[in-house]
Write a structure and sequence with these properties.
By secondary structure, this protein is α+β, with helices and mostly antiparallel strands. Helix content is about 30%, strand content about 20%. The chain has a single domain (about 5-135), classed as HIT-like (HIT family, subunit A, 2-Layer Sandwich), CATH 3.30.428.10. It is built from three helices and five strands; from the N terminus they run βββαββαα. Strands 1-2-3-5-4 form a five-stranded antiparallel sheet, covered by helices on one side. The chain is globular, with a radius of gyration of 17 Å.
């Protein structure tokens, strides 16, 4: 298997910290300064594939670095982002290995300004029929 994230142990240049089950690294390419990835060491593609110990450590490390972003005044807030999209091919910005992004965020940052400009028409009110359907099937 040729996975960029599985090879992290061989290229340690971006690793911030290494733990028993995961790494915290600086993202390259990055979306903004201080963009961090939390990546399980074991190759999995979905959150549901992690065992309990891996999941616990992953979220502990996620909490640690999201708080550091605030404590060190890297930004005033952050976004946490994770995808599972097997329907898309791998690319420079898509890796088929579970990882969680921590994006430092500030008022009127580049992402906010682009979303503000482009989100018109994306969000729709939740219709009563849709609410009932999804509450029923997701129980």
């Amino acid at each position: 298997m040729d996975c960029r994230f599985c090879g992290l142990k061989d290229d340690r240049t971006r690793i911030i910290s290494e733990h028993k089950y995961c790494y915290a690294i600086l993202s390259n390419p990055r979306l903004m300064k201080g963009h961090i990835l939390i990546i399980p060491k074991r190759h999995v593609e979905k959150l549901s594939e992690l065992n309990a110990k891996e999941r616990l450590e992953l979220f502990e490390v996620l909490q640690k670095y999201s708080q550091k972003i605030l404590d060190l005044k890297i930004s005033k807030g952050y976004s946490i982002h994770m995808n599972y999209m097997p329907m898309l091919p791998e690319s420079k910005t898509k890796v088929d290995h579970l990882h969680i992004h921590i994006w430092p965020r500030d008022k009127d940052d580049e992402i906010y300004m682009k979303m503000l400009k482009n989100q018109q028409g994306l969000f729709k009110d939740l219709a009563e029929k849709e609410l009932k359907r999804f509450k029923n099937i997701l129980k």
